[in-house]
Amino acid sequence: MSHLSYEESIKRVYYGLRLLAIVTLAEVFISLLGKGHIIPGAEKYAAILYIAGFVIIILSAYKAYFIIYEFMHMKYEAKGLALTVLLPTALLIWAIIAFFQEGDSWKDRREQIKEKNAKPAQIQEPQGMHIQNDTYTLENLM
Prior knowledge:
Number of domains: 2
Number of helices: 4
Order of helices and strands: HHHH
Helix content: 55-70%
Number of strands: 0
Largest sheet: none
């Protein structure tokens, strides 16, 4: 572990806070830009939304990396211990993606059911329920 003086430690913490604030402000700006609040009409283009989303994901991952390695002091720990923190995080991200996909699939099926229920019902005569008149006559039984 690095041995910093108290003043150096305080400077390092303030550096981290400023860095996180700047990255957060950049994320907010990119989000507003992608949604068309800064440049009206930009939200009509799917490419801008995808690029903005991708950049926000990258910046969020960088913030998570910085918080884990600086504030949780993982950069001073053994590599194996750092991986015990990062591997469950990667599995959690995988689970979130799987839940989003499952939710989208459920939404699509729900829309199909709504469409079927919106159609008027067709009244049909029951088939196979009628017994013919000559089925149970005395002539057939003997």
